[in-house]
Amino acid sequence: MIQGVNRQWRLAVRPIGPIDQGLFRWIEEPIPAPATGGQILVRNLYLSIDPTQREWMMHDTYLPAIRIGDVMRSLAVGRVESSTHPSYARGDLVQGLFGWQDYALVDATIPGAATRLPPGMPITRALSTLGLTGLTAYFGLLDVGRVAAGETVVVSGAAGATGSVAGQIARIKQCRVIGIAGGAEKCAWLTREAGFTAAIDYKSEDVRARLRELCPNGVDVYFDNVGGRILDAALAELALRGRVVLCGAISSYGVTELPPGPKNYMNLILKRGRMEGFIIIDYVQRFGAAVQELSGWIAAGQIKDQVDVQEGLENAPQALRRLFSGENRGKQLVKIADP
Ligand code: NDP
């Protein structure tokens, strides 16, 4: 048994309004020991911070809501400290829903509970471009959006973890790519670093007017990370047989009253368009092949990725808040221990 304390953030109340530390309770417990029969003790190293965590705190989604008093649910990468499972040994790097805590006791007999990292894969990349956000961009754009060379693709949340990869894949597939992001600095990164054709600053520009200007033949694929007014503007500018990929709607996560439905959805009828949502976990069987292709693009310098690492378990609530204020620069992670 390892001596010491297991520091944890547990959910105290369901959020109304912005994320802050008061929504969580800081607990210190003895470090648990794995029981015989397939448990492993994981030392968490990096936490993935994701907008969907706010939804998990609120209500049932594709996963049940986090119960009040439970450790805050989070994807993480950690190192196996001790194991009673024959396939896991001390020192293995694994990924799973290990939560906002220093140590997680995991039943490794459950398929997918602790997935081993491929040898040599950097941890930060396993939680970003080669992890769920990169894979979401990949399948959302290629499978749901079905982009073709020469098309005009618009991505919202474009400077974020998912959006930035979606836009760059569209560029690799020889599309014109317009990114929508908050602020001049993010827009400059999109065009100068990530190779987007153009960028729209939704905080200072009229999105609909700029879309009309930049997409004179309409939007063939709109990859939506934000919902609300930006979705409505993109719907209005849809091209014939345009596709709207519903990836996320961060502008409505946590609002007390949902905005009225999009006004311009009738354009889907006029333009014979398609709007389709997806959840990345449905693609798990195809992750291996996608990671291979994404790795090739990274190695060839065709995808630039950004990770934004905050330090310390105590800062996990603030890191989650950053996603909603737009402070994050690329994939938001929290480092809680040295690998
Ligand atoms: P990001 O790295 O994109 O961070 C979130 C970004 O959202 C912020 O940086 C901010 O950028 C933007 N944002 C925040 N509030 C608003 C707002 N009110 N209006 C417009 N933009 C806003 O996060 P992820 O890449 O992890 O997630 C992006 C989206 O993808 C989310 O909606 C998420 O739920 C979804 N998702 C869906 C999955 C699926 O399976 N369908 C899987 C993973 C993610 P800015 O400064 O530009 O405003």
Descriptive notes:
The chain is of the alpha/beta class and 339 residues long. The chain folds into two domains: 5-128 and 306-335, Quinone Oxidoreductase, Chain A, domain 1 (Alpha-Beta Complex); 132-281, Rossmann fold (3-Layer(aba) Sandwich), CATH 3.40.50. It is 26% helix and 26% strand. It contains ten helices and 15 strands. α3 (132-144) crosses α4. NADPH dihydro-nicotinamide-adenine-dinucleotide phosphate binds at residues 50-52, 132-133, 136, 157, 159-163, 181-183, 186, 225-226, 247-251, 278-280, 323-324, 326, 328, 331.
Please outline the helices and strands.
Blueprint: E1 5-11, E2 24-30, E3 39-48, H1 52-58, E4 76-83, E5 93-96, E6 103-107, E7 115-116, H2 123-126, H3 132-144, E8 152-156, H4 161-172, E9 176-181, H5 184-192, E10 198-201, H6 207-214, E11 219-224, H7 228-236, E12 238-246, H8 267-270, E13 274-277, H9 287-299, E14 307-311, H10 316-325, E15 331-335
Parallel strand pairs: 8-9, 8-11, 9-10, 11-12, 12-13, 14-15
Antiparallel strand pairs: 1-2, 3-4, 3-6, 3-15, 4-5, 5-7
Helix pairs in contact: 3-4, 3-9
Bound molecules: NADPH dihydro-nicotinamide-adenine-dinucleotide phosphate.
